């Protein structure tokens, strides 16, 4: 089992090191190889996704990814900016199914902006389509406006697109995930305005017929953004497109108050996957040894479960994380009075010990 | 001064009746004419925006709008559905500047999902571009996919577009609004992925140079969705496109916990405007006399201010609303122990009395 380890920028290397530590302690005989990506890829090879890094990722069973991005790359041309590495990997590997859990750990309920009773026990799984929609749709670019309010003016444009089979496959992923949970799926669309999401709604409804044990409801994206704030526990599995999923999955993560705890997985149809924390590269705290490695460690657990067929090892990691939380160990981002503040490496060590 | 009164569906007629009551009590010599819109337009004339209603709206100085929509119209073809009336009015009148305040009234702080210290005193103004973006961009439709992941498959698509002058005019609106407030603007984009929003970001930055007294920052839409939950008071004026504005303005409204209090205004370059509550038509409580008319009454105040040049009258209404809140009067949606529950009409009467 071969794993491409892509630490990236900012706190990426620190948090990935702890996840690697945990994986090694499990003695699963994983073959891990590291390569630069994002700003680090640009520094090393002039491109955020150097060909050698892409090749390593393509040949691996799974990718353990840290985070990319730093202010110092903000002035580069768009194709050279760190985030292009993520988009490039998603596209090259066809990673269409993004799993974004938003879980509120009972020890961390107080960290949420929301009143405790609204988030205690929260456990939402957002399933975001990741290779279609307006993220990749052609044509796109700049031009002279051919019509519209200001014909002749400078214009920029993008194309939102979904085909029936793209919607079908992500709908199947969502319904199958729901079958293992509380058997409820909320499909989020904007069918009242967008042709793309009218098709989305139609196709999800059709696929639903193959899952009579799962209850489906439809919600407009603006309403979903509201209901997440008002009553987040009404949601279980949420499935939506790439753009809406980007916004709603981040909103949902933040509801928990502890985005430093939330992993993610992005899978293709061969169960190859990219695993990364839901949070970003946090360049402001990079190198200080204070970042929370738990989201990355939990991403490694998802990797064992989804791509490497190692359910037992995945559960071991998850139980170990629960244990260190119960022991009161906290990195700075989730620290509160009465708990013990630890560094990135101390947290990784504690998880290893708790395995 | 001529006002088109379009009550619409659900609770629309009830809440608009109270706003009309308040306007009449001010004795401003307003000429008000009522016409059906939304589902009511469909019932009366076979179209959500009957030609006579549109004509009335076009000839008026301002439109006082209730709300549209009811489940019973969900099965109609899209062009006949109630919400097409709103889209049609925005387009026909060129109502490009949507003002969506998210204010947390001190008496209602407890109603928010968020912890009181995070929302007490919250006062955000979201300025949403309302006639461009993917809402109206052509081409759009269904077709056989010409390329992409599944060439040949059934596909639906929409076009996101913005021209430079469209972005310029909404940016001016935002900077000028900020000059009257705390002189801060956050422009929300997705320039890291979308060509349209790279142009957006560039143009907003250029326009900012004409407002050296206003501080501008840029934020990605996914991050904005998070920061609204994490630290809403960091925002003052937020400016964004039609699609992102739809999502973020609803998210922000819900943060206050009292969406029944929030007005909105949609203006064109002649200061003609459509004024409506931020909430919907709530068909489940229609006809019961329990809906909160205050968002509509406050929309009438915005109408006096923005379209009718009656600042003093606008302030009178706003002060009266503050007064009834201070008196402890509450409709069911904002009721809490120790306050006095009143009906829709009683609330309208109380505002009139407090004028
Ligand atoms: C960095 C960016 C391109 C990316 C996205 O928008 O998909 C990020 O926000 C994410 O959600 O992984
Ligand atoms: C009804 C719908 C078309 C509309 C929109 O998306 O603009 C509504 O959500 C709004 O925000 O006014």
From TrEMBL, chains A, B:
Its EC number is 1.1.1.85. It comes from the Bacteria. Keywords: Amino-acid biosynthesis, Branched-chain amino acid biosynthesis, Cytoplasm, Leucine biosynthesis, Magnesium, Manganese, Metal-binding, NAD, Oxidoreductase. NAD(+) binds at residues 280-292. The record marks 135, 190 as: Important for catalysis. Substrate binds at residues 90, 100, 128, 222. Binds 1 Mg(2+) or Mn(2+) ion per subunit. Mg(2+) binds at residues 222, 246, 250. This is 3-isopropylmalate dehydrogenase. It comes from Comamonas guangdongensis.
């Amino acid at each position: 089992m071969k794993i491409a380890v892509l630490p990236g920028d900012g706190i990426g290397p620190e948090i990935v090191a702890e996840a690697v530590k945990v994986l090694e302690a499990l003695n699963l005989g994983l073959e891990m190889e590291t390569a630069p990506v994002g700003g680090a890829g640009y520094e090393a090879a002039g491109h955020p996704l150097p060909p050698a890094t892409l090749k390593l990722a393509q040949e691996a069973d799974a990718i353990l990814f840290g985070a990319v991005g730093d202010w110092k790359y903000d002035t580069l041309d768009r194709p050279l900016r760190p985030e292009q590495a993520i988009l490039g990997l998603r596209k090259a590997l066809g990673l269409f199914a993004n799993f974004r859990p938003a879980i509120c750990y009972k020890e961390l309920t107080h960290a949420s902006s929301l009143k405790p009773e609204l988030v205690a026990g929260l456990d939402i799984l957002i399933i975001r389509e990741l290779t279609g929609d307006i993220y990749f749709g052609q044509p796109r670019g700049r031009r002279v406006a051919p019509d519209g309010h200001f014909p002749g003016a400078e214009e920029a444009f993008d194309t939102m697109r979904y085909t029936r089979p793209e919607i079908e496959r992500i709908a199947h992923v969502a319904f199958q995930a729901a079958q293992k949970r509380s058997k409820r799926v909320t499909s989020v669309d904007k069918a009242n305005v967008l042709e793309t999401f009218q098709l989305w709604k139609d196709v999800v409804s059709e696929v639903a017929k193959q899952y009579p044990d799962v209850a489906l409801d439809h919600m407009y994206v603006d309403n979903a953004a509201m209901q997440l704030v008002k009553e987040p526990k009404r949601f279980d599995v949420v499935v939506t497109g790439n753009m809406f999923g980007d916004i709603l999955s981040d909103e949902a993560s933040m509801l928990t108050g502890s985005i430093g705890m939330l992993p993610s997985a992005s899978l293709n149809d061969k169960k190859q996957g990219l695993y990364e924390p839901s949070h970003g590269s946090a360049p402001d705290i990079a190198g200080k040894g204070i970042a929370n490695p738990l989201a990355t460690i939990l991403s490694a657990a998802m990797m064992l479960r989804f791509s490497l067929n190692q359910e037992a090892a995945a559960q071991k990691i998850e139980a170990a994380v629960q244990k260190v939380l119960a022991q009161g160990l906290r990195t700075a981002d989730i620290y509160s009075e009465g708990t013990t503040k630890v560094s990135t490496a101390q947290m990784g060590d504690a998880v290893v010990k708790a395995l």
